[in-house]
Each structure stands twice: as C-alpha cells, then as structure tokens.
Write a structure and sequence with these properties.
Helix content is about 65%, strand content about 0%. It contains nine helices and no strands. The C terminus is likely disordered.
Length: about 160
C-alpha cells in the first residue's frame, strides 16, 4: 500500500478526505439532495421534483438506489478520533457499497434512456457522465483505497495531558 506524506494528513494524523469522495457522495445522493431542496423551497409554482423526475416512480427508485450510499455517508460522518472504534472494521469495506450504488445508478440511467428509445436527453446524459466518473474514480483511485483503510485514532498525547493535570 502506498504511503502518503504529512501533507495528506489532518491534525489527528488521519488521511484527509479526498475531494473526489465528497463529490461522489453528492452525485450518488443527488435524489436526497433534490428532495431536501424541494422541501426547503416550498414554492408551489416551482416543483423541483417534477423538473428532475418525470414520474414519481423514477424518484422513488432513485431514493432506493441512493439509500445504499447512505451507509458509507453515515459512517463517514461518524469517522472522528473520539468515536467508537467498533466502526473501524466496517469502514474499510465502504468502498464496495458505493461502487454497487454507482453501478445500479448507471444501470437505472441506461434503462431510462432505453425507455425513451435512446433519444438524446441532456438530463440523462449529464447524470450518465457523472455516475460513470464516480465508477471510474471508485475503481481507479489509489488514495481512496488508503483513505478507506484508515480510521482516526484518539490522540494519546491529549489523553496523557489531561491525566497529568
């Protein structure tokens, strides 16, 4: 496994979160983000869900596919030095649910394109490109493998300093 220098570490000695990981979560959880924006806007003349999803069925399927990516997102939010180490063994395998979610999402986009008889749709094309990028990133990133293998440990120096006082 490659080791990365101190410029890749945060103040707790753990590897910094890659920007690509954050962007991947945004792409895979886009149905939830659109749902949140639609709930926040509450403007009846602007139905954000109807702009993005033509049928309710499409929206619910997108929510179901995105639910797979919620597990790594929740574990990522719990990835702190003060959190329980019981989650550490789970964290190293969280690349695979993201990859499964991205492949299912890409398959769903291709099925939607087939329903439209492969007539060009900018909306589907942009989603397809973004999800294809996520799949390639999850498969090819070496730093992401190191990031998923790392869990921030509680700093011993802070524990020792608190005990001495």
């Amino acid at each position: 496994m490659n080791r990365y220098g101190p410029e890749y570490w945060d103040k707790h000695g753990a590897y910094r979160t890659p920007i690509g990981f954050t962007l991947s979560l945004l792409v895979l959880l886009r149905a939830y983000l659109i749902w949140a924006f639609a709930a926040i806007s509450r403007r009846p003349e602007l139905d954000l869900l109807a702009l993005v999803y033509q049928q309710k069925r499409d929206f619910f399927i997108a929510l179901g596919i995105g639910a797979i990516a919620l597990v790594p997102a929740v574990l990522y939010s719990l990835r702190r030095p003060s959190s329980s180490l019981k989650l550490k063994p789970l964290w190293r395998f969280m690349r695979w649910p993201l990859l499964v979610c991205a492949i299912l999402d890409f398959t769903w986009i291709m099925l939607q394109a087939a329903q439209q008889y492969y007539q060009f749709s900018l909306h589907l094309a942009l989603q397809g490109v973004m999800v294809a990028w996520v799949i390639l990133y999850l498969l090819r990133s070496r730093y992401l493998k190191v990031f998923f293998a790392d869990w921030p440990d509680e700093l011993e120096s802070k524990k020792d300093g608190a005990d001495k006082r």
